[in-house]
Amino acid sequence: MASKKTYYWKEKIHEIIYEADTPAGKLFDIILLVTILASIALVMLESIESIDKKYHLFLNISEWIITILFTIEYILRIITVKKPIKYITSFYGIVDLLSTIPKYISLIVFETHVLIVLRALRLLRIFRILKLARYLGASNQLATAIKASRAKISVFLFTVLIISVIFGTIMYLVEGPKSGFSNIPKSVYWCIVTLTTVGFGDITPVTPFGQFIAACIMIMGYGIIAVPTGIVSVEYSRQSKDGSSSRHPFTKIDVNSQSCQNCLAENHKDGAKYCYKCGYKLHI
User: Fold this and answer.
1) Nearest CA to 208 among 232, 167, 174?
2) Which one of 15, 27, 144, 187 is most buried, by most CB atoms within 10 A?
3) Does the predicted model carry a pTM greater than 0.85?
4) Cα–Cα distance measured from residue 224 to residue 231, given in angstroms and rounded to the nearest whole number
């Protein structure tokens, strides 16, 4: 009887923590998001010296309260799933851990509590809460296109690097230390900044020939910026035509926030009784 009760409570807690379709689940997620935002705001306020001096004790206690709450939540997430290691090693599991431990580490190593801003990554859960996963098909397609273009982009970046080294060396010879081009690495840095149209202005050519070369690099930069975009766009169009993009199995139909207690798979079809990934029975 005790084991049945334990299983029931684990199932209910799992439903509240991992799913957002129930009133309790929605309330939990809203409280979680508000707490995350409050935690980030506290860290930001603590970085302001005048505020920290006046309210340091309050800010510190507030951060500890939030850290303890996140610790409890993290433990509950572990004990309510069938395969804890799967959650611990998942993306959200790692984010949850990284957003919890900095405050504890700060007891040993000072100034590490600022890493608490990693909690901002937990806001990605809003995709699940607002059921935005059904719209991720296009982003998956873009990711596939970028992956397919990696060889061409790598060649392009290598070419840009060679151009930067060549023109950086030329500018070092033309301008010299008097104009700020004191060495070749610094000249290459200037070339990269100019080629990418960033233009910090910390180093500028003063000779007519140097300015002419700089103008050529600037014009070249506009053309270079368009190349990666063109490469990815062509691959993206090809993926769309071939229909070979990586899509969620339920991209075109309604999905909910049900989470499998066994494998943690989400975005199941509305009304689904079993997990589409492992076949484990879902909460109904």
Assistant:
1) 174
2) 187
3) no
4) 12
Write down the number of H helices and E strands in the chain.
11, 0
Computed on alpha carbons and rounded to an integer, the radius of gyration of the chain in Å comes to 26
Q: CB-based contacts of 269: which residues, under 8 Å, 6+ apart?
A: 250, 253, 254, 255, 256, 276
- Residue 78's contacts (CB-CB under 8 Å, 6 or more residues apart) are 84, 87, 88
Write down the CATH number for the domain with range 2-133.
1.20.120.350
Which of 146, 186, 136 minimizes the C-alpha distance to 165? 186
Judged on CB neighbours under 10 Å (0-12, 13-18, 19+), 247 is middle
- Tokens representing 97 are 């851990």
Distance CA 152, CA 146 (A): 10
Fold held by 142-242: Helix Hairpins (1.10.287)
For the chain, the structural domain boundaries read 2-133, 142-242
List the pLDDT tens digit at each of the 284 positions of the chain. Answer: 556 677 778 888 888 888 777 788 888 888 888 888 888 888 888 878 899 899 989 988 998 999 899 899 999 999 988 888 988 998 888 888 888 888 888 777 766 555 666 667 766 666 655 555 555 555 667 777 788 888 888 888 898 999 999 999 999 999 999 889 999 999 999 999 999 888 888 899 999 999 999 999 999 988 887 888 788 888 877 766 665 444 444 444 455 667 777 777 776 776 777 887 787 877 65
> Which among 221, 207, 126, 128 has a CA at the least distance from the CA of 171?
207
| Beta bridge mates, 255 | 269
Please tell me if the domain spanning 2-133 has the same topology as the one spanning 142-242. Answer: no
